[in-house]
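Re: beginner question about structure tokens

> Can someone show what the tokenized structure looks like for a real chain? I only ever see the sequence side.

Sure, here's an example I had lying around. Input first:
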Amino acid sequence: MNLKSLSNKFDGFDGSGSGMSLDVGLLMKQKSNISIGLTVQNIGGSMTWKNGTKEEMPVITKLGGAYYFDKGLAALDVEFGPATLVHAGVEYKLVSMLAIRAGLDQAQVSATEVANNLTTGVGINVGGVSFDYAYRMDNSLANNSTSYFSISFQPPVPAEKKVLKGKEVEDKGTTIDQPAQQKDGLDGLYNPSKKASVAADKTTKTSEPAKAEPSKSILNYYQ
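And the corresponding structure tokens:
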């Protein structure tokens, strides 16, 4: 759910306006590699201009889905509003650090005309640093094609390790720098069945009665 506050201003003359609208959405994951989404935008939305004119905003419904495969993903959105528009795209990873993208971004030109705008792009990721470039062709207005650049950084997440007596141990109980013959002992600390047997053995040993030493008479100290 998203509550939006809108504000528009124009240079050269005083024609400002403001308004509010509400967006709601739903995301469902059918499988690990398939997701489906639904959004409804501009619920109750309107703009009020300085001259007193109130303009209602059209409600737009979008239904889409995405499919993830080994080397990329494919996505499709269908927009229902004043016109029915299609937005689609595909990303394919040539190698782990390089991805290429292509798509279709339809836009409404008039009540009866829709422009088919092609898009393309490339993404590079090296050591957590990502560079993305995208190009959008605008067939509805001459010389209005757009290029987009973005740079982001996401540090790599180190593998989780545990420390036992100064030794680094993997989560599965396998030591990194200990000899193979010592791994069974450490495995017992992470394997519940072995841990239980070790605990029972310790309990048995501690529960055995201690052997009493022969008592010495006080007279022995004087002999």
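Each token stands for a local structural state, so reading them left to right follows the chain. Helices lie at 183-190, 192-207.
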